[in-house]
Design a protein that fits this description.
alpha/beta, 3 domains, 6-stranded mixed β-sheet, 16 helices
Amino acid sequence: MKAFLMYRDRDFDPKVELPANEPFLTQDLELNTLFYAMGRGDKFLYEISRKAVLAGLKDKDTIIYRQDILKDCLINSSVVKEIYDLARESIEKKKKEHYWFLGNYINPSIVLHSSVRIMQMFLDYLKKLKNIAEEHSDKFKSVGFTRFFAMLKKELSDEYLTSVQDHLHELEFRNGILMSAELGRGNKGVNYVLHKNRDRKQSWLARIVARRAPAYTFRIPPRDEAGARALGDLRVRGINLVANALGQSADHILNFFDMLKTELAFYIGCLNLHEVLAAKGEPTCFPQPLAAGERGTRFQGLYDVCLTLRLDQRVVGNNINADGKDLVIITGANQGGKSTFLRSLGLAQLMMQCGMFVPAESFTADISDGIFTHYKREEDVTMSSGKLDEELSRMSDIVDNVKANSLILFNESFAATNEREGSEIARQIITALLEKRIKIWYVTHLYDFAHSFFEKNMENAIFLRAERQADGGRTFKISEGAPLETSYGEDLYNTIFRTSENDFCLCSSR
């Protein structure tokens, strides 16, 4: 049995290899805030959510496949949580049973006895799972859940479950063991085969008068310890193959429940996150993924999901249409929301590419072949290198791993030197990346850099600016606008030092 709730044709791998730049993505986009909200204190949910989001998808059909399953989960959250709890509980009970017989696992009799108990326990959970399928399957519309419930109904039919129950009852050997063997070299027993016992459902009279095949019998005296050991050895030889087969069957069902729990963990994490956002009245939507290379990015009401998870109030969303653009340069007032806006774009891209909803009223974007971040860092405390050296080293690592149709988010990059040198470094790097069909969103205070691209009047570039009100207030809105020579640093100075009309006011042309 297979769940197939993450992929159409294969299981989700919880040990999937994450991108080499995972630490930078986690730090720059503050992803741990997202994962904590999805995990809600559960380490397993946290880890599976982390793996699913960071591993991502590059296939449009699989993204839509997961979206449809998640839509079903949102509509039928109580049913999905019931299935998840059922899978989790069955695994926990199996572990307790495993600890009970761990020290005697070599003995086939103990293995068989324990396997019968485990299979009986699993059978009870399979029956519960089948009942859920029969009761609720008509409420689910996605291909994934429809196929999952159909599989349960087919493979867990009443006839099959009754047959399994009968076999387990028979393997308790309450009426003794019937087996055969052949004589091998030296008259030693070989080819031991366990047989099904005679039908005990017939009446006692029928059993008495029934004709029996001729056979030799013997009895072991009560004090014959050697004979008892020999008979016990014969019994072990007879049930050895059955014990191994039943143990493998138990492992097979355990693997099914384990994978069911793992794959549903991602959707439970999504439900946890959605509940928090819905309680705050924050909008969410299912994004429209476009094929890689289509260069379509547009959204309404996009906000930083990690920021709203840390605040009590709702946060500001933004509306942008960057269809057909390879380069997006964002400038404007200090503390105007540029970095937050850039982070919101990166988070939405990651969430879309793992099959989740995104924090926006609507969102459309092309699938990226890789997502990278290049954010400014603090000075190296070991003094082994300067900030610019460190930035260039990280940029070199990105270049070694980046591919066409990847997305790179730059935040105040190459500003560790003077503006002329920083602008020139940034201009040459961005020009080379654009030639390789790499998508770039760049937050910067480097006016020379931003203006050099603006004056080229490039069709595949768009320029955005953080809004500033006439009185210096910030709306945290990002809108289309040409780069300005000033970032209004005096606003921050005046706010921090509370200048009055008679106080000195810091002013600057840049």
